[in-house]
Specification:
about 270 residues, alpha/beta, Aminopeptidase, nine-stranded mixed sheet, 9 strands, about 20% strand, globular
């Protein structure tokens, strides 16, 4: 089954299409879909639970930037096609910026980059909703799905639990096997982080290993992944698929990377 493409007509661009797609899986896939209120704003966020009673769980997030539409549909396709290992439970946020997604903008309808609002319990309606629901919950792994408008290949960020990356080799090898290119991150390539943060990053082919504690000091407002790494999910990843490539490829990058990361989590004590 093909995943709707907002690049080919209006189907898929409307947030209502994404919401309808998730609701359609409730009976066949055993998911629970909730609408979480954004306090102080007249909108809600979708929150999907899969096997919520499982002891060990993973959280998957997409759509914080509304002009990166393949990421939410990649997340949907992972559940629709039953690619998530059911030895874990999952809390899924299908689209954390619904107004930006609808408009095709990076920011929300208030002009806020939500991915800089996860400090101090959340400083946007969306981040407050997510952090409130996640309160007192911990995860074996957190993955945030994005797209990069300039990239021609995939790259990922990994917050370091110890001195060595745990996911880099597994994820990049899986993409190599699938014939999906990795981004060469040359000097001057825009990683979307403050320039000073480079001192907290170890860059290799298709991968940026991050000293989260050091890097956090350079942000005025924390991204989702850095906030999660503080307590809720020390093993936290951000994946970037290349916005410049065909729609189905953009979906495929995330499908391969997410399933590889989950397999690596099972294998890691």
């Amino acid at each position: 089954m093909m995943t709707p493409s907002p690049d080919n007509g209006s189907t898929g661009r409307r947030f209502s299409d994404l919401r309808t797609a998730w609701l359609s899986l409730r009976a066949s896939h055993g998911i629970l879909v909730r609408e979480i209120a954004c306090v102080g704003a007249s909108r809600t966020l979708l929150c999907v639970e899969l096997d919520p009673t499982t002891v060990s769980s993973i959280t998957l997030v997409a759509g914080v930037h509304g002009d990166e539409p393949a990421a939410p549909w990649a997340l949907f396709s992972l559940v629709r096609d039953r690619l998530l290992d059911r030895r874990f439970g999952y809390r899924i946020w299908p689209c954390t910026n619904p107004t930006g997604y609808q408009a095709g903008t990076r920011e929300s309808c208030e002009g806020v980059d939500i991915n800089r609002t996860f400090s101090k319990g959340g400083t946007s309606p969306e981040s407050r909703a997510i952090m409130t629901v996640n309160r007192d919950r911990t995860y074996a792994l957190s993955i945030d799905l994005h797209e990069d408008h300039e990239a021609t290949g995939f790259y990922g960020y990994e917050t370091l639990v110890d001195r060595a990356p745990r996911y880099r080799d597994v994820v990049t090898a899986a993409l190599d096997r699938a014939g999906l290119p990795l981004q060469t991150i040359h000097p001057g390539f825009d990683l979307g982080t403050p320039p000073e943060a480079e001192s907290a990053q170890e860059v290799t082919r298709g991968w940026i290993a991050v000293d989260a504690k050091r890097e956090s000091a350079y942000f005025n407002g924390l991204p989702f992944t850095l906030a999660m790494s503080r307590r809720a999910a020390p093993r936290s990843l951000t994946f970037e698929s290349p916005r410049t490539r065909a729609w189905d490829e953009r979906i495929a990058f995330h499908r391969v990377a997410v399933t590889a990361a989950i397999a690596a989590t099972l294998a890691t004590p």
